[in-house]
């Protein structure tokens, strides 16, 4: 059994992205977006559910913008263009579940730049069956 006090785990991770657990059908990831930062506009071929632990920001999904804060949850269906931006003074901390997995099992990317470089180099591919 995997067990996490997820808000605490997310708050304690200084990394932009850290894969906590990867299963056959889903993946659990924590993220910390620094003030003024963003995930970056992207489209996944997987579903994504994001739950915000602390901080404030904006969710942009399919051209619609909403404010997000602690306790909010946003669903991004596969194929939808999205971005999440930190427009507050503190880190925007969240955990997200991808279905199926989107990132390499155990991946840790300290910064967005490191995450982008790993993706571009093909070093952040999800496990195959």
UniProtKB/TrEMBL annotation:
Classification via Pfam families: Cupin_2
InterPro entries in the record: Cupin_2, Flavonoid_dioxygenase-like, RmlC-like_jellyroll, RmlC_Cupin_sf
Listed Basic and acidic residues bias regions: 103-115
Region (Disordered): 103-129
Domain of life of the source: Bacteria
UniProt domain Cupin type-2: residue ranges: 30-98
Name of the protein this chain belongs to: Cupin type-2 domain-containing protein
Annotated organism of origin: Actinoplanes siamensis
């Amino acid at each position: 059994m995997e067990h996490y006090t997820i808000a605490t785990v997310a708050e304690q991770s200084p990394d932009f992205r850290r894969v906590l657990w990867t299963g056959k059908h889903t993946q659990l990831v924590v993220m910390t977006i620094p003030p003024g930062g963003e995930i970056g506009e992207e489209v996944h071929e997987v579903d994504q559910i994001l739950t915000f632990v602390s901080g404030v920001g904006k969710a942009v999904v399919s051209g619609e913008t909403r404010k997000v804060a602690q306790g909010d949850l946003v669903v991004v269906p596969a194929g939808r263009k999205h971005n999440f931006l930190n427009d507050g003074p503190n880190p925007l901390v969240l955990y997200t579940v991808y279905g199926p997995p989107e990132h390499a099992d155990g991946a840790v990317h300290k910064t967005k730049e490191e995450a982008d470089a790993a993706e571009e180099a093909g070093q952040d591919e999800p496990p195959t069956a």
